Amino acid sequence: MDLKGRIKVIMDEQRFESGFYKRDFVITTEEQYPQEVVFSLNKEKTEVLNTVKVGDQVVVHFDIRGREWQGRYFVNLVAWKMEVANDQAPQEQQGPPNVEALPTINPVDVNVEEEDDLPF
Q1: Residue extents of the structural domains in the chain
Q2: Contacts of 53 (CB under 8 A, 6+ apart)
Q3: β-strand 36-42 against 21-29: which pairing, if any?
């Protein structure tokens, strides 16, 4: 899966006694109803965050991970790739597109009463 948005927060690296380490970051989607979504980068992939900064628009490729612990369920979004998105807005067209002129239509008076030969 992937999601596009702007980086809002880059958190500090977390290290655990087992030797595992991760780093979380938050992006804000640019939709009608923006969402703030937190992702994790694990182990060596944490270095990807050294190449971006808050405010950069990125595309995050991620997996959804779920687990159960003591009867509670948790979901993590684990990023495995991040790309800096093209930040340029599409350029507006200058002037109207080339359209051939349409023929002029003469107005017709629709209120003219005509005599009918019909009996009804």
Answers
A1: 2-84
A2: 7, 10
A3: antiparallel
- Condensed to tens digits (0 to 9), the pLDDT of residues 65-82 reads 999 999 999 999 999 999
Using a cut of 0.85, tell me whether the model's pTM lies above it: no
For the record, the structure tokens of 76 come out as: 């993590």
Q: Which two tokens stand for residue 89?
A: 């807005």
Write the CB contacts of 24 (distance below 8 Å, at least 6 apart in sequence): 11, 14, 38, 39, 40, 41
Within the chain, how many helices (H) and strands (E) appear? 0, 5
Are the C-beta atoms of residues 11 and 24 closer than 8 Å to each other? Answer: yes
Domain 2-84 has CATH 2.40.50.140: yes
Amino acid at 25: F
The answer to whether the beta carbons of residues 3 and 34 sit under 8 Å apart is: no
**Phi-psi category of residue 49: left, alpha or beta, with phi > 0 → left and psi -120 to 50 → alpha:** alpha
